[in-house]
Write a structure and sequence with these properties.
- This protein is an alpha/beta fold.
- It has a domain at about 1-95 and about 220-370.
- It is about 50% helix and about 10% strand.
- It has 20 helices and 5 strands.
- It has helices spanning about 5-10, 25, 40, 75-85, 95-105, 110-115, 120-125, 130-140, 150-160, 165-175, 190-200, 205-215, 230-235, 240-250, 260-265, 270-275, 280-295, 305-325, 345-350, 360-365; strands at about 50-60, 85-95, 225, 335-340, 355-360.
- Strands 3-2-4-1-5 form a 5-stranded parallel β-sheet, sandwiched between helices.
- Helix 9 packs antiparallel against helix 10 (about 165-175) and helix 17 packs across helix 18.
- The radius of gyration is 21 Å and the shape is globular.
Length: about 375
Amino acid sequence: MTRLKPMLSALFGLCLAAQAAPALAQAYPKPAASNQVDLAAVGQGFAGPRTQVAVLGSTHLSGLPKDYDLKALEPLLERLAAFKPELIAIEAVSGEGCDHLSRYHELFDGAAESYCADTDAARQATGLDVRAAVVAVRQRYADWPAQPTPAQRRSLASVLLAANERASALAQWLQLAPAERRAGDGLDPALVVQLDKLATSARNENYRIGAVLAARLGLQRVYAVDDHSADRITADAGGKPYEAAVKAVWAAAPYPFAEREQAYLDRGDLLGLYRSLNAPETQRAAIAADFGGNLREPSPERYGRQYVAWWEARNLRMAANLREAFGNRPGIRVLDIVGSSHKPYLDAYLGQMHDVEVLDVQALLAPGTR
């Protein structure tokens, strides 16, 4: 089956073909359910402050020209740092999730190969496969000192690489003084090369925003909350006819904000680009055209609705992974960095949780915010 999922990673922003469409709530009204429990009322009067969650919709930096100067991210990083998140999450599959996708690779249409890194070098250096490394990482964090030594950071970075948690490994690496970024304590020369490449040349928001911001704030990890276990839906959806049906919806009309976003890129204004990507009108237009359009896709097999089912299942699992990440730390500030087309779904799902306040990320990015 021709790979469809890599194209989905750039649905929003520069690569999404979409335009404004009637609001889904108006096009497909749902009957009122008078017998449902009012969960909002149940959640009144809990102890302590709400957990504040800001979901940042991102373009995928890998789609920018290879010579694009990512120093232009600095104004964005400054505003996100001013929020002082105590937990940062990213759109990446966790080591545990990668182990699951790998063990059941027949079910997931090659998702492990697409979304998980090769850990062979780290396994050779540490003697740990992904499962053993995931368990070891959990114990390391449980025993982590307030003032870790460079040797402890190098050792943890090696185990994180073995656990397929590369962004967290980079966060440790960046908190080492330059002279301490060397082999030793579990890091062999091959792993040092990996970390140096992630630090200097990786064009991915998980590293250039998530890991960099975590290191700047003194956080010991980032949380990988993506999920591709729902990819069995796309694997079973019908192959090329399914792909053709979904692509036809995307091609039905041009993305209405492409020129505006290209202008931000041309003048090196990535903060302006992120403001545009997270603007409500941009979100509404793209989501209504893409997922709304696929709900109306007319094939007898209802290929478009199968695609929407995959998307909703994936986002529900991402929301659950994020909820689990801060489950033992109620009342903290959380930043979740995801592709822009995930943002409205995560905002909606997280907004249904009892003690969570979903913040207006536009306010964090506003001019003059520090």
